[in-house]
Design brief:
The protein contains 22 helices and 16 strands. By secondary structure, the protein is an alpha/beta fold. The protein is elongated and about 115 Å long.
Length: about 550
Amino acid sequence: IKLLKEKNLLEKIENIKNSVPYGDRSNSIIEPLLTEQWFANAKFLSKKAIQLVKNKRTNFFPENWSKIYFEWMNNIQPWCISRQLWWGHRIPAWYSKDKKIFVAENETEAKKAAKKYYKKNVDLKRDNDVLDTWFSSALWPFATLGWPKKTYELKRFYPTSVLVTGFDIIFFWVARMMMMGNHLIGKEPFSKVYVHALVRDEKGQKMSKSKGNVIDPLDIINKYGADALRFTLISMAAPGRDVKLSEDRVKGYRNFLNKIWNANKFSKLNKCKLTKKINTTKINLDVNRWIYFELIKTNKEAQKYISIFRFDEAAKVIYQFVWHSYCDWYIEFLKPIFDSKDKKSIDEARNLSSYMQSSILILLHPFIPFFTEKIWLDLKFDNYFKSPLMFKNWDLKSQPSFAKSFNKIDWLIQLVTNIRSTKVDFDVSPGSFIDISTHELNLNKKNIINNNLAVLKRLGRISNVYDTELKGKGVKIIVSGETITLYLDQNLDLNEQRQKISKKAEELKQRANVINIKLKNKSFLKNAPKQIVEKEKKALIDCKTELKKLNSILNSIKN
């Protein structure tokens, strides 16, 4: 400034507020420096890649990610492919002393081109820059298979079927593989692109070393096991949603694995073993027909979800079946059978429950491979089936005739569930025994109860089942349109309970109204994520179901 003033060259001095960029890792000031760079004509490369997705030669799952792909590709800019790094593929360009550029596949070809131009041999210096990481990555589907040579591997494995990737690199990686594959090989590199969610921390922030919020998978695995972590991530990987990973969720799925482990211990204690080939047409017990019918249903649903890349839904239906249908109910149904002296029923129960175990392991193997393989070997299923678990297919023989037995047991489960929840509504101890009257039931439902009396008494904590109406304070419940009377504690103050239940019913009614108003709001339906809308719809159905049950109880108290 002093020199400028002396030479009378200074026009004015002013203070300018300037935004100074800092590196997020080095925390140093970033100094901009203009240099010459290499560019690829991405507009030209993108044309074919756009058409292949439009013509469904390559499909995105979930499908909505194709819109993001088109948005980027249709507005693509020239691609700066040079980087000033010490590693990577060197730019295939050579310079003469007078800065003439020779681009070639290798130095020999570059020297030939230079000799042709200068009419003599000249010294060439290779460009110091390397190719952009994403340029090199774009070559991955075929460069790893021996390209540019026409190898067996290239012919056999290109194009591949499925690419699994995160949504944040659709443009950086997926689009560029599409461009390169079509330009250099003439074929799309993959037919399906499964876009999974990103794993974030429990607050929904992207994990970053600089933020210090990285959850180390090795720490989680040491604590809860690899399969508990794997099942957690699969269960939470809903499309369009990031996975907010927390330790508590992993702990929950570790408990699921414990549940299966304990169910297998129960089987061992009761000498359940596959002794002969299962003939599903010869299953006689309703409870065995019910669980087999449930297995078929779960198997079909899980396969359907896997085929459309909804691994979270597949995990969910298998989880529900294993935890609730098999562990919570089927094992409880088996206990009275094992305690009985009916050898024929015991043999069938042992054989089928062991078969159910093997089927459950087959269903769960893609989700929790280490755990299932361990149990498969422990139970010696590899000897029986003459096959390692990973090679077992999911084919099961359907038995439509079992639907009748399924409906019977399903109704029995509803009855037990209603008895338990009614006890809760009346503040009656879940462990206390009660009497029930079936005098209003139709003959079909009475037969279901009589045929499964030991099970019902055990699960429902029932002392006696009467076919006539008893004197005393009875509460009527409705199960699938059928009325049953429960005789709870004789010291129960029904007036006090009526007030409590009335208050609960009023709260449910208000909650249902709030949800109803929300679901009638066009703006909410249009802007809210699909999953949130579905969640609200389910909440409304649950409210109405519970309200119907409470009103039924209230009516029975009034009568």
